[in-house]
Design brief:
With 176 residues, this protein is mainly alpha-helical. The protein has one domain. The protein contains eight helices and no strands. It has helices at residues 10-25, 29-33, 41-61, 66-87, 95-119, 122-134, 141-154, 159-164. Helix 3 (41-61) packs parallel to helix 7, helix 5 (95-119) runs antiparallel to helix 6 and helix 6 (122-134) crosses helix 7. The longest helix has 25 residues, at 95-119.
Amino acid sequence: MIFSLFRKDPRRTTIAALYARIATASRVPGLYAALHIPDTVEGRFEALSLHMILALRELRTLPAPAEEVAKDLTDAFFRDMDASLREMGVGDTVVPKRMKKIAESFYGRAQAYDGPLDTGDEAALAAALGRNVYGSEAPAIGLARYALAADRGLKTLDLDTLLGTGPVFPQPEAFA
């Protein structure tokens, strides 16, 4: 019985690998150098959120068990955010409040980006990204083009490919 606690859960391992690939894609230097995402805690949250939103959008369109994968992937994201807050020294009593704000921010961004991504509205997506990522009214045109290209690319993947090799995101420098 006790040894079952030490066995690797293949599902959890697969989700962890998928999340790691998404997180790695959100840290590509070109996002910060070429597309000017601020290299700050907030900027890295924005980059990770954008890549998570793009991956979750694709999972919504795929057949079962993609819905379960999306739920597990979202759980992995929020566990990572919780762990990051704790690593930064946020106290146990404050973490739940911060997590609530993070969740509101994440889901607000998902809602703001969904419509423009669905319709391919570069201007609306650039405006939303500009407000969220850059904190200004200046549109993030390059970042919007990157997100639209990533969204189109993810639509070509099936669940096995997504879980096996992970999502493939374009090179940010191409959109600078």
